[in-house]
Protein backbone atom coordinates (compact mmCIF):
# COMPACT_ATOMS: atom_id res chain seq x y z
CA UNK A 1 0.00 0.00 0.00
CA UNK A 2 0.90 3.66 -0.04
CA UNK A 3 3.10 4.58 2.90
CA UNK A 4 5.61 7.30 3.69
CA UNK A 5 7.54 7.14 6.95
CA UNK A 6 9.71 9.63 8.77
CA UNK A 7 11.43 9.89 12.09
CA UNK A 8 9.31 12.01 14.40
CA UNK A 9 11.79 14.27 16.14
CA UNK A 10 15.23 15.77 15.60
CA UNK A 11 17.10 18.18 17.85
CA UNK A 12 20.22 20.03 16.71
CA UNK A 13 22.30 22.99 17.83
CA UNK A 14 22.28 26.22 15.88
CA UNK A 15 24.96 26.14 13.19
CA UNK A 16 24.99 22.34 12.92
CA UNK A 17 23.64 20.41 9.94
CA UNK A 18 20.26 18.69 10.18
CA UNK A 19 19.41 15.54 8.29
CA UNK A 20 15.79 14.44 8.07
CA UNK A 21 15.09 11.01 6.63
CA UNK A 22 12.10 9.56 4.83
CA UNK A 23 11.20 6.23 3.24
CA UNK A 24 8.43 5.66 0.74
CA UNK A 25 6.86 2.67 -0.91
CA UNK A 26 5.52 3.62 -4.33
CA UNK A 27 8.26 2.91 -6.85
CA UNK A 28 6.29 4.68 -9.57
CA UNK A 29 6.44 8.01 -7.75
CA UNK A 30 7.93 10.54 -10.11
CA UNK A 31 8.24 13.50 -7.77
CA UNK A 32 9.13 13.64 -4.09
CA UNK A 33 8.66 16.76 -2.03
CA UNK A 34 9.76 18.38 1.19
CA UNK A 35 7.36 20.77 2.92
CA UNK A 36 7.84 22.93 6.00
CA UNK A 37 5.07 23.76 8.45
CA UNK A 38 5.64 26.41 11.07
CA UNK A 39 3.33 26.61 14.11
CA UNK A 40 -0.13 27.82 13.13
CA UNK A 41 0.80 28.11 9.46
CA UNK A 42 0.08 26.24 6.26
CA UNK A 43 2.56 24.18 4.29
CA UNK A 44 5.45 25.79 2.48
CA UNK A 45 7.10 23.93 -0.38
CA UNK A 46 10.84 23.78 0.34
CA UNK A 47 12.08 21.71 -2.54
CA UNK A 48 11.32 18.70 -4.66
CA UNK A 49 13.29 16.10 -6.57
CA UNK A 50 12.50 14.25 -9.74
CA UNK A 51 12.90 10.50 -9.46
CA UNK A 52 15.65 10.28 -12.09
CA UNK A 53 17.90 12.49 -9.96
CA UNK A 54 20.17 11.38 -7.11
CA UNK A 55 20.74 14.76 -5.58
CA UNK A 56 19.44 18.28 -5.69
CA UNK A 57 20.98 21.28 -3.96
CA UNK A 58 19.23 24.57 -3.32
CA UNK A 59 21.17 27.02 -1.14
CA UNK A 60 21.30 25.46 2.36
CA UNK A 61 19.12 22.52 1.35
CA UNK A 62 20.40 19.26 -0.12
CA UNK A 63 18.05 16.46 -1.10
CA UNK A 64 19.42 12.96 -1.61
CA UNK A 65 17.38 10.23 -3.27
CA UNK A 66 18.21 6.54 -3.18
CA UNK A 67 15.61 5.11 -5.49
CA UNK A 68 16.74 1.53 -5.01
CA UNK A 69 16.13 1.74 -1.25
CA UNK A 70 13.22 4.21 -1.64
CA UNK A 71 14.98 6.54 0.76
CA UNK A 72 14.87 10.32 0.69
CA UNK A 73 16.74 12.74 2.90
CA UNK A 74 16.80 16.48 3.47
CA UNK A 75 19.97 18.09 4.76
CA UNK A 76 19.83 21.62 6.10
CA UNK A 77 23.25 23.21 6.41
CA UNK A 78 24.03 25.79 9.08
CA UNK A 79 20.69 25.21 10.79
CA UNK A 80 19.14 28.34 12.29
CA UNK A 81 16.50 28.81 14.99
CA UNK A 82 14.11 29.94 12.26
CA UNK A 83 14.36 26.45 10.78
CA UNK A 84 12.47 25.06 13.78
CA UNK A 85 9.30 23.59 12.30
CA UNK A 86 7.70 20.33 11.21
CA UNK A 87 9.09 18.92 7.97
CA UNK A 88 6.97 16.64 5.83
CA UNK A 89 8.15 14.51 2.98
CA UNK A 90 5.55 13.57 0.40
CA UNK A 91 5.37 11.48 -2.71
CA UNK A 92 3.25 12.27 -5.71
CA UNK A 93 1.33 9.19 -6.69
CA UNK A 94 1.78 7.98 -10.20
CA UNK A 95 3.84 9.33 -13.04
CA UNK A 96 2.91 13.00 -12.92
CA UNK A 97 3.23 15.80 -10.41
CA UNK A 98 -0.46 16.63 -10.46
CA UNK A 99 -1.83 13.55 -8.75
CA UNK A 100 -2.52 13.23 -5.07
CA UNK A 101 0.20 13.52 -2.46
CA UNK A 102 0.90 11.00 0.26
CA UNK A 103 2.54 12.57 3.30
CA UNK A 104 4.82 11.21 5.96
CA UNK A 105 4.04 11.80 9.62
CA UNK A 106 6.28 14.83 9.80
CA UNK A 107 9.58 15.37 11.60
CA UNK A 108 9.67 18.04 14.28
CA UNK A 109 13.00 19.85 14.07
CA UNK A 110 14.07 21.62 17.23
CA UNK A 111 17.02 24.00 16.89
CA UNK A 112 18.70 24.95 20.15
CA UNK A 113 20.61 28.23 20.35
CA UNK B 1 3.13 30.09 -8.01
CA UNK B 2 -0.59 30.33 -7.35
CA UNK B 3 -1.86 32.25 -4.35
CA UNK B 4 -4.63 30.58 -2.36
CA UNK B 5 -7.03 32.39 -0.07
CA UNK B 6 -8.73 30.06 2.37
CA UNK B 7 -11.55 31.14 4.66
CA UNK B 8 -12.28 31.04 7.54
CA UNK B 9 -8.86 30.73 9.11
CA UNK B 10 -10.37 29.28 12.25
CA UNK B 11 -13.75 28.59 13.80
CA UNK B 12 -15.28 27.08 16.88
CA UNK B 13 -18.51 25.24 16.12
CA UNK B 14 -21.19 23.42 18.03
CA UNK B 15 -21.59 19.70 17.47
CA UNK B 16 -24.31 18.81 15.01
CA UNK B 17 -23.80 21.94 12.91
CA UNK B 18 -22.03 22.31 9.55
CA UNK B 19 -19.20 24.55 8.39
CA UNK B 20 -18.32 25.47 4.82
CA UNK B 21 -14.70 26.28 4.04
CA UNK B 22 -13.87 28.30 0.95
CA UNK B 23 -10.76 28.15 -1.19
CA UNK B 24 -10.11 30.85 -3.80
CA UNK B 25 -7.15 30.63 -6.19
CA UNK B 26 -5.75 33.59 -8.12
CA UNK B 27 -5.33 31.55 -11.30
CA UNK B 28 -7.13 28.76 -13.08
CA UNK B 29 -6.04 25.32 -11.93
CA UNK B 30 -7.23 21.92 -12.98
CA UNK B 31 -6.55 19.92 -9.86
CA UNK B 32 -7.68 21.00 -6.40
CA UNK B 33 -7.42 18.85 -3.30
CA UNK B 34 -8.80 18.94 0.23
CA UNK B 35 -6.72 17.58 3.11
CA UNK B 36 -7.33 17.04 6.80
CA UNK B 37 -4.62 17.33 9.45
CA UNK B 38 -5.75 15.99 12.79
CA UNK B 39 -3.98 17.31 15.91
CA UNK B 40 -0.36 16.23 15.92
CA UNK B 41 -0.86 14.15 12.78
CA UNK B 42 0.12 14.24 9.16
CA UNK B 43 -2.07 15.30 6.26
CA UNK B 44 -4.65 12.93 4.87
CA UNK B 45 -6.30 13.51 1.53
CA UNK B 46 -10.09 13.82 1.79
CA UNK B 47 -10.94 14.23 -1.88
CA UNK B 48 -9.95 15.62 -5.22
CA UNK B 49 -12.25 18.39 -6.42
CA UNK B 50 -12.94 18.16 -10.12
CA UNK B 51 -14.41 21.06 -12.03
CA UNK B 52 -17.68 20.15 -13.66
CA UNK B 53 -18.02 16.74 -12.03
CA UNK B 54 -18.36 15.13 -8.64
CA UNK B 55 -15.40 15.05 -6.31
CA UNK B 56 -13.38 11.87 -5.98
CA UNK B 57 -13.26 10.75 -2.34
CA UNK B 58 -10.56 8.74 -0.63
CA UNK B 59 -11.25 5.66 1.41
CA UNK B 60 -12.86 6.58 4.70
CA UNK B 61 -14.39 9.82 3.47
CA UNK B 62 -17.92 10.14 2.08
CA UNK B 63 -19.80 12.82 0.22
CA UNK B 64 -22.60 13.07 2.79
CA UNK B 65 -20.10 14.05 5.47
CA UNK B 66 -17.78 16.18 3.32
CA UNK B 67 -19.71 17.61 0.36
CA UNK B 68 -17.49 19.50 -2.06
CA UNK B 69 -18.31 22.04 -4.72
CA UNK B 70 -16.10 23.09 -7.63
CA UNK B 71 -18.11 25.54 -9.71
CA UNK B 72 -15.15 26.85 -11.72
CA UNK B 73 -11.38 26.56 -12.13
CA UNK B 74 -10.54 29.06 -9.37
CA UNK B 75 -12.88 28.17 -6.51
CA UNK B 76 -13.91 25.25 -4.33
CA UNK B 77 -15.73 24.69 -1.05
CA UNK B 78 -15.60 21.88 1.47
CA UNK B 79 -18.43 21.45 3.96
CA UNK B 80 -17.94 19.51 7.17
CA UNK B 81 -21.44 18.28 8.01
CA UNK B 82 -23.06 17.23 11.26
CA UNK B 83 -19.86 17.92 13.13
CA UNK B 84 -18.61 16.05 16.16
CA UNK B 85 -15.52 16.74 18.31
CA UNK B 86 -13.65 14.13 16.25
CA UNK B 87 -13.86 16.52 13.29
CA UNK B 88 -11.64 19.02 15.12
CA UNK B 89 -8.71 19.37 12.72
CA UNK B 90 -6.96 21.69 10.33
CA UNK B 91 -8.48 21.51 6.86
CA UNK B 92 -6.30 22.58 3.95
CA UNK B 93 -6.96 23.06 0.28
CA UNK B 94 -4.23 22.54 -2.24
CA UNK B 95 -3.71 23.02 -5.95
CA UNK B 96 -1.40 21.16 -8.27
CA UNK B 97 0.43 23.40 -10.68
CA UNK B 98 2.95 20.97 -12.06
CA UNK B 99 6.52 21.64 -13.03
CA UNK B 100 8.54 23.62 -10.52
CA UNK B 101 5.63 24.75 -8.43
CA UNK B 102 4.42 21.35 -7.36
CA UNK B 103 1.57 21.70 -4.94
CA UNK B 104 0.60 24.95 -3.22
CA UNK B 105 -1.40 24.92 0.00
CA UNK B 106 -3.80 27.35 1.55
CA UNK B 107 -3.06 28.55 5.06
CA UNK B 108 -5.63 26.15 6.48
CA UNK B 109 -8.81 26.33 8.53
CA UNK B 110 -8.42 25.38 12.17
CA UNK B 111 -11.73 23.86 13.25
CA UNK B 112 -12.66 23.14 16.84
CA UNK B 113 -15.94 21.35 17.53
CA UNK B 114 -17.35 21.66 21.03
Question: What this model shows, in words?
Answer:
- The complex is a heterodimer of chains A (113) and B (114).
- In chain A, strands 2, 4, 5, 9, 10 and 11 form a 6-stranded mixed β-sheet that branches. In chain A, strands 1-3-8-7-6 form a 5-stranded antiparallel β-sheet, with no helix packed on it.
- Chain A has strands at 4-6, 9-13, 18-24, 31-37, 43-50, 55-58, 61-66, 71-76, 85-92, 101-103, 107-112.
- Chain A is an all-beta fold.
- Chain A has no helices and 11 strands.
- The termini of chain A are far apart.
- With 114 residues, chain B is mostly beta strands.
- Chain B has strands at residues 4-7, 10-13, 19-25, 31-37, 43-49, 56-57, 68-72, 75-80, 89-98, 102-105, 109-113.
- In chain B, the strands form 2 sheets. In chain B, strands 2, 4, 5, 6, 9, 10 and 11 form a 7-stranded mixed β-sheet that branches. A 4-stranded antiparallel β-sheet of chain B has the order 1-3-8-7, with no helix packed on it.
- In chain B, strand 5 and strand 6 form a beta hairpin.
- Chain B starts with a strand and ends with a strand.
- The model of chain B has no long low-confidence stretch (mean pLDDT 92).
- Classes of the chains: A mainly beta (113), B mainly beta (114).
- At the A-B interface, strand 4, strand 5, strand 9 and strand 10 of A face strand 5, strand 9 and strand 10 of B.
Amino acid sequence: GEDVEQSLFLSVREGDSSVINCTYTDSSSTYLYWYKQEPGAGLQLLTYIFSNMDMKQDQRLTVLLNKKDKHLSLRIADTQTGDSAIYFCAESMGSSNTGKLIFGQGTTLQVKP
Amino acid sequence: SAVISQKPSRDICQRGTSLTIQCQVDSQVTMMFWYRQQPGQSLTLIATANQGSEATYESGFVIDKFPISRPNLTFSTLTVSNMSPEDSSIYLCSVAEGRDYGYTFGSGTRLTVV
